[in-house]
Amino acid sequence: MPEGFGGRIPNCNAALCLNQRHRGAGCCRCVDSCPTDAIRLEGGRPRLDETLCVQCGSCTVVCPTDVFTQINPPEPTLMLTFQHLPPTAPLEVVCPLRSGGAESRAPVAAVVRHRRCLAALSVPHLLEISRQGERPLWLDDSPCADCPFGACHSLLTASVAAANTLLAAFGHPPSLALHTTHPEQLLPAPLARPVLDGMKPQLSRRGFFGALRQMGQERVERALTEEAPPMLRPAVAVDQRLPRRLPHSRKELLAHLSGLVIEDGLSQEAEIGLADLPFAVVGVDADACSACGLCSRFCPTGALHFDGPGVGALTSYKDAAYALDFQARLCIDCAICQVACPEEAIAFGDSLRTEQLLSARAESLVAGKMTACITCGAPVAEHIQPSRCHVCRQGAGKVTPLHDGAGLMTDLLRRSNEPRQ
Fold first, then answer.
1. What φ, ψ does residue 311 adopt, rounded to 5°?
2. Backbone torsions φ then ψ of 305, nearest 5 degrees
3. pTM, rounded to two decimals
4. Could you give the count of Cα atoms lying within 13 Å of 1 in the half-sphere of its Cβ?
5. CB distance 345 to 284 below 8 Å
6. Cβ neighbours of residue 219 under 8 Å, at least 6 residues apart?
7. Quick one: which of 50, 53, 58 has its CA closest to 36?
8. Residue 12 contacts by C-beta under 8 Å, 6 or more apart in sequence?
């Protein structure tokens, strides 16, 4: 096993895993991205083998629900280093395994060496160190082909593509480049460049203490948003055992997007392709939807919100209505809603509007009137005919007492009550 990058072993909160929310989720992103096979799924629950973990950080980036977190990761210090460098100077980020010393073929003013794998840089990290596209930023992925942790390369390329797509959507230059994707822009021969340690930001005394306060505040804020371990959580009602939670990583991304100013002349109605983005757009077939609400119930972030009467809330459901709303900015592209839908009524779009990434306004997907299931009495969309809920249509329907058509039970009871001869 090659030597790792050092630092703390990531924490694994398996309760946050999508596979624990729905058994059909089928998520294995952490397993696929781990370069040393340190993560495996047991009964759908992720398990981390600490003896195999090299602290590359890929699992902390690839998981959409933040199952993996790390105490004192090196990325915040790297962000601090970049904050105190010239804002528009072209820079390059390299990993600690890159050879070549102080030479680089990238057209940059200086090289910043990160403490671990570049795949640990998330989309928010890339947006920050590129100063929202103002700073040309190169990432040297040329060593990845021969690296023992080369399985992380696909995650790095995906993060860079997502960051560039978001920058372009807001009218900013897509200023991030990889050596392997932009070889034509590299210099013919490597040139000597200053090399900076990403873990040693150049701070004044005042800046040093200010940075300590900022980092401490960020850790407190993150701790407050994290869920308590299972043994410390109070008991919850049955209907609240699938709580909705917006991951900290998504909050960071939305915070960066809110800081991006749309350039003049660019409409918020402009369409953005979703191929490279960690978002999805949900569409619902209104004719097929039976208003069961399962898509909303299993949605981990609250991107889908169902409003309608609960079972037993009304006896006839006369004049009762339902509505299903959606917020694309909260969607983490987990596809649980499609898996959970018993009517196969959910499909996904190929693009979204820039406005959908910025606005907290929910968009209506489907709405209508409700009635009662003629078999069990549960609420069901009025247009579904015959008026049976999905459970009754797909199963045996409401469980009722057996009918003693032959009178066998009646005869047995009569005989048991007769006096013995």
1. -60, 130
2. -130, 120
3. 0.83
4. 13
5. yes
6. none
7. 53
8. 46, 47, 48, 67, 68
Residue with tokens 């690839």, as numbered in its chain:
62
Q: Are 108 and 193 in contact (CB under 8 A)?
A: yes
With contact defined as beta carbons under 8 Å apart, do 318 and 389 qualify?
no
Q: What is the C-alpha to C-alpha distance for residues 283 and 300, in angstroms, rounded to an integer?
A: 17
Quick one: how many helices (H) and strands (E) in the chain?
13, 19
Q: At what angle do helices 248-259 and 205-225 cross, to 10 degrees?
A: 130
Q: Which amino acid is at 13?
A: N
Task: Estimate to the nearest angstrom the gap between the alpha carbon of 336 and the chain centroid.
Answer: 12
CA 331/CA 362 separation, integer angstroms: 12
Query: Is residue 295 classed exposed, middle or buried when 0-12, 13-18 and 19+ CB atoms within 10 A define those classes?
Result: buried
Sequence-distant (≥ 6) Cβ neighbours of residue 346 within 8 angstroms: 282, 283, 284, 285, 295, 337, 338
User: Which residue is associated with the tokens 């066998």?
Assistant: 408
Instruction: Tell me which fold the domain 276-394 belongs to.
Output: Alpha-Beta Plaits (3.30.70)
pLDDT tens over the chain, length 421 residues: 456 798 899 999 999 999 999 999 999 999 999 999 999 999 999 999 999 999 999 999 999 999 999 999 999 999 999 999 999 999 999 999 888 778 999 999 999 999 999 999 999 999 999 999 999 999 999 999 999 999 999 999 999 999 999 999 998 999 999 999 999 999 999 999 999 999 999 855 444 444 445 545 545 455 444 544 444 445 444 345 588 999 999 999 999 998 887 776 677 888 999 999 999 999 999 999 999 999 999 999 999 999 988 655 545 666 789 999 999 999 999 999 999 999 999 999 999 999 999 999 999 999 999 999 999 888 999 999 999 999 998 875 554 444 454 555 455 555 555 555 5
Write the CA distances from 76 to 93, 156, 215, 361, integer angstroms.
15, 18, 8, 31
- The two three-digit tokens of residue 75, written as one number: 């990325």
Domain boundaries, the chain: 75-206, 276-394
> In whole angstroms, what is the distance from residue 263 CA to residue 255 CA?
18
Bridge partners (DSSP) of residue 15 are none
Query: What's the token pair of residue 182?
Result: 């932009």
In this structure, the strands spanning 110-113 and 91-94 are parallel
